[in-house]
Amino acid sequence: MKSLELGLDRRAVIWIVNCTLGGTVGCTAIAMLITYYCTARFGAEVMATTLRLAFYIPLLLAIPLFAFIGVKMQQLALANRLLVQASRYDGLTGCLNRSAFTADVIDFFAKQDLTPFPPTSALLILDADHFKKINDCHGHLAGDAALVGIAAVLRGAVGEDGVVGRLGGEEFGVFVRSTDAGAVGGLAERIRLGVAEDGLPEGGCADAVTVSIGVALFTYPAVYEDIFKIADEQLYLAKGAGRNCVCMMEHSHMPGDIRAMADQLRSGFAEFDARPRAERTGEGGQPWQLAGR
């Protein structure tokens, strides 16, 4: 309970104050109206005495009551937020846990069915190399620190362009919503190099922390389970190629000519939107429109 009390921020305190004042004013007003209606016929002196009682008694009772209720409601809201956070995030690394990561990515997949020209996305599966040696040589605290370091590199590299999750153990997942082969390849290399540069353990063990990365670059429509399987297969290829490397595969259900047409339309719309407004209007100042049947 003490931690919940300390967790009440400025907005929560303002809400408690407003709740207390509003509830007290409302109760006092209702009490005085009822008292006036019931005692008006008994004369001015009786009515004045009862109105004073109707004013002070709600003040004495309502202020502590509404303050107590407001604090408890804010503590309950804070506890609910903490429960939601605990159910979605990995406690060690701060990344999404596997279930939350999968749910968010599947939700994005579903929304692409309503998008005329959905983007090209990528799913990256990463696994720390020889992680058991790190635990055996330096202890599990060092292994936990290595996982936290990997998560920091992932968040720094991905930023707001994707979703990062810990899939379990020393395995992580990264989903990039909109990308292409060159961009996702560069992202995977930045992650690999970032982990290798920051992942040198201290002590007598010379094993550095490195990651192997499997990448599935794909276009929609797609099924998450199929894309995950492709990325996982690429991860095992990276492991078999000597670890500390990246393997990538492009996947699309669309035929090649339709995919090329969609890419061309996508780039055409982007180029059209990037033009100045004067270039996008006709002689009469009206915008050009796409003709269709």
From TrEMBL:
EC class of the enzyme, as a word: transferase
Domain GGDEF: 119-251
Entry keywords, A to Z: Membrane, Transmembrane, Transmembrane helix
EC number: 2.7.7.65
Catalysis: reaction(s): 2 GTP = 3',3'-c-di-GMP + 2 diphosphate
InterPro entries: Diguanylate_Cyclase, GGDEF_dom, Nucleotide_cyclase, Rev_trsase/Diguanyl_cyclase
SMART domains: GGDEF (SM00267)
Organism annotation: Sinorhizobium psoraleae
PROSITE patterns recorded: GGDEF, PROKAR_LIPOPROTEIN
Pfam families with a match to the protein in the record: GGDEF
Transmembrane segments: 12-33, 53-71
Alphabetical list of PANTHER family matching this protein: DIGUANYLATE CYCLASE DGCM-RELATED, REGULATORY COMPONENTS OF SENSORY TRANSDUCTION SYSTEM
Name of this chain's protein: diguanylate cyclase
SUPFAM superfamilies for the chain: Nucleotide cyclase
Gene3D superfamilies: 3.30.70.270
Keyword rRNA-binding attributed: no
